[in-house]
Specification:
The protein contains ten helices and no strands. With about 250 residues, it is mainly α.
Length: about 250
């Protein structure tokens, strides 16, 4: 990789790491104060099933578009991971109430569409660096906040099915995060636009916010002006690379 693309990749990853650290969501805030019921958890699992259906198609499309190099490794690993996760998510849905088939009924809330819409658009249109940066942020935020949710529910003695705890008390997906970072660097080296990577990441994280609002039972229109709406750090597209970078000195 040449020095310019290496510097740009490092700057993108560092800036979005700050967004990841600052991200929060309304369901997690409700859980910390003991205001989450099983109905909220069922909404979360239902939304996850809808998301997984969209992701299954989107990652297959991305693999077909970018079958080689780090991108091919990333999207192949994602497809393999989803195949192992779906049976566990179905078990989680059954433990919370209706059979998983009923959980795929047509959603009535726009928030339920936010992430599936974003990831579907990304699968069709995003460059490899953009898709990888967006997915890296999504993986990191989602895994951490799911884990924190399970712990907050335990701290407030909220009754939670064991299948829910087993599924959502997830470690950081280190392998996927590393593959995504490598794909960002490789994509920029091949001419992908860093500003498109920024905007695609904002789109996907916004979709993740819609997922959490739906799970928390918030309508998008009311959530926009609510104190419970997720707080997100903005990512300036032209922000300088972090100080102290050996690559970008």
């Amino acid at each position: 990789m040449n020095g310019d693309s290496a510097c740009t990749a490092e700057g993108l990853l560092r800036r979005h790491d700050e967004v990841i650290r600052q991200h929060d969501n309304p369901l997690l805030r409700s859980a910390r104060s003991g205001r989450v019921e099983q109905a909220h958890l069922l909404r979360m699992v239902q939304a996850d099933l809808w998301c997984m259906e969209a992701e299954t198609v989107a990652y297959a499309v991305l693999l077909a578009r970018f079958p080689n190099g780090p991108a091919g490794d990333l999207f192949a690993e994602l497809n393999s991971t989803l195949r192992t996760l779906r049976p566990r998510l179905d078990t989680c849905a059954r433990a919370l109430g209706p059979p998983s088939g009923e959980a795929s009924a047509f959603p009535e809330d726009d928030g339920a569409f936010a992430f599936p819409a974003a990831v579907s658009w990304m699968g069709l249109h995003a460059e490899r660096a953009a898709a990888a940066l967006a997915l890296r942020s999504d993986f990191a935020i989602y895994a951490r906040e799911c884990r924190e949710l399970v712990h907050a529910l335990a701290d407030t003695a909220t009754l939670v099915p064991e299948a829910f705890r087993d599924y959502y008390d997830m470690p950081a997906p280190t392998k996927l995060l590393d593959l995504a970072a490598a794909t960002v660097e490789d994509g920029l080296r091949h001419g992908d636009a860093p500003e498109r990577a920024d905007s695609t990441t904002r789109l996907l994280v916004s979709g993740l916010d819609g997922f959490w609002r739906f799970a928390a039972g918030l309508r998008p229109s009311s959530a926009a002006g609510s104190a419970a709406a997720p707080a997100r750090a903005s990512v300036p597209a032209s922000a300088p690379a972090p100080e102290g970078s050996r690559t970008c000195a």
